[in-house]
Amino acid sequence: MSTAWMNPVPVWWEPWRAIVLRVVGRAIVPAVMVWLSGVPGTPWVGAAPWLWLRIAAFVFAVPGVLLWVLAFANVIKNKRVLLVLMPTGSLERPQSIQEKRLRLPREYAIGKTISVTQEPTTFAASAEPRVTLRADGTITRLPLWGATAEDFVAHVNERLEGRGVTLELVIPEDAGEGQG
After folding, report:
1. CB atoms < 10 A from the CB of 150, how many?
2. What beta strand segments (E) does 14-97 contain?
3. Three-class SS of residue 103?
4. Residue 168: enclosing H or E segment and its boundaries?
5. Reported pTM
6. pLDDT for residue 123 is more than 80
């Protein structure tokens, strides 16, 4: 049965704390650079003692401010959604404005059964653990923000019920080796 008449179904969202961390993180560098450089056309000439250093700091501040603004724009555009089931039956990761402008390929996984593999933890980050979804196409390093892979699969399968797509957790055979 065709599902093309259905609307896209969001199945996994980014938590608000992740958005706050990104906005604060992206604000630090531009704030420091503006503090060093000053703002042209205003009485604030910056804390840097040399003109060449103030100019360089301002050059770094401009793209930093742009990325900071894009953090808000992407939240508004994608509505915090990290994974969506499209009417065609594919699971897709919505692209950011930057990814669209750079024409990066869209990440998707199409199939009746999509395998989910937990990625090895690279460092202790709040976005960990991460999973990779594979079928026809691959979605790599999808952040779970503290949820277990089992909970992720159960939650998404609940959202996908009756739509002909199922996630299946795959435990790598070498996962238990090297533990002792």
Report:
1. 11
2. 81-85, 90-92
3. coil
4. strand 166-170
5. 0.81
6. no
- The CA-to-CA distance between both ends of the chain, in Å, stands at 50
Other Cβ atoms closer than 10 A to 116? 21
| Range 9-13+82-172: architecture per CATH | Roll (2.30)
Give the pair of three-digit tokens for residue 11.
């199945």
CA 57 to the chain's CA centroid: 28
Q: What single letter denotes the amino acid at residue 81?
A: V
Kindly indicate the confidence band of residue 177, based on its pLDDT and cuts at 50, 70 and 90: low
Both structure tokens of 146: 């503290």
> Mean pLDDT throughout 27-38?
91
Q: Which residues contact 20 (CB under 8 A, 6 or more apart)?
A: none
Give me the torsion for CA of 91, 94, 98, 99, rounded to 10°.
Answer: 10
The H-or-E segment that residue 33 falls in is helix 16-37
SS3 114: strand
Whether the CB-CB separation of 14 and 145 falls below 8 Å is answered with yes
Number of other residues whose CB lies within 10 A of the CB of residue 1: 5
Q: Which two tokens stand for residue 127?
A: 């976005």
The least confident of 9-18, 40-49, 142-151 is 40-49
Q: How many CB atoms lie within 10 A of CB 100?
A: 12
CA–CA separation, 155 and 172 (whole Å):
21
Peptide bond into 8 cis (omega under 30): no
Mean pLDDT of 89-118: 95
